[in-house]
Amino acid sequence: MPAGLGADLGIAAAAFVGTNVDNCVVTMAMVAGAPLQRAHRIAAGQIIGFVIVVAVSAAGAAVLYEFSPAVVGLLGLVPLAMGVSGLLGLARRRGGADTAPAAAPTGRWRRRPEDRAVGRSLTAAALVTVAAGGDNLAVYIPLFRVGGAANLGAIAAVFVVGEVLVTWLVLAGGRHPKARQMMLRTGHVAVPILLCCVGVLVMVQAGTFSWL
What we know:
Number of domains: 1
Order of helices and strands: HHHHHHHHH
Largest sheet: none
Structural class: mainly alpha
Radius of gyration: 19 Å
Strand content: under 5%
């Protein structure tokens, strides 16, 4: 293996791991807090979101375009809005449950925590992945540009293998009985809080707050 190719593969692997830890944790929590039949949809949403981020990065490298990290950090508003919406909806439902008649245990008052969780769909997972990966454009664009066309296939292969492993980890961890048991008790609160944290973290890392 040429030295240049080996270096690019190592850098690509390090870039993938370093930029996908936060999204992996959030998506795993989403899987654990959702019904089992939705697990593959959430995982598929993560894959779609990652493909979008990589495609935009490759396009940016091809046209020698640099995205302003502070502007891209505005994507953090997406998971932040989802998280805040989930917490507000939970607060409203709890307030309504407190005032609900004791003799009316049916309907929405009997909804389980996992039925109230946010981020259980393919679209939600894709949006969160794109938002969490938006600031990764600053890493991926130079990686594609420096690697050049000769090593682009190798870098893409590293990303494909990495995404397969992440998807397996998300599904395995999210469907683990202990993880599901914990998320069934706390997921309706934990997932919105995680989404809020991801949104704020994306904007902090991108320097969006100082730009605003």
